[in-house]
Amino acid sequence: METQAIIQIETWQALIGIAVFYDAENDILSVTQAIPRLFPQYLNLLKDGAFRVGDGLDSVLFVGGIYLRNQIFASLGFKLDELEGE
């Protein structure tokens, strides 16, 4: 468990230095894709959720990643309305 916490801290520290939306989103999505590996105790819960919505585990993790992105972008200095383009 301690190793997982260290990995999480290092991952979030890496996110702080990101300057563009694309890189930030990719890093956030890679974190959510790693959840089954880092937290196997939640794998059955994630599978149940995927089954209930009629989709695959990858889709559930992707949607979770987008949700997480939206939650933390403000702390990275990004504004969601800037995502819509010029």
Give a written overview of the molecule.
The chain is an all-alpha fold and 86 residues long. The protein is built from 5 helices and no strands. It has helices at residues 2-16, 21-33, 35-38, 43-53, 57-72. The radius of gyration is 14 Å and the shape is elongated. The protein starts with a helix and ends in a 14-residue tail after the last helix. The mean pLDDT is 79.
The number of distinct helices, counting runs of at least 4 residues, comes to 5
Helix content bin: 55-70%
**Tell me, what's the shape?**
elongated
Q: Which regions have little confidence, pLDDT < 50, spanning 5+ residues?
A: none
Q: Name the beta content range.
A: under 5%
Measured between the Cα atoms of the first and last residue, the distance is: 44 Å
Average pLDDT over all residues: 79
Taken in chain order, the helices and strands follow as HHHHH
Computed over alpha carbons, the radius of gyration is 14 Å
Number of strands: 0
Tell me which oligomeric state these chains represent: single chain
Largest sheet: none
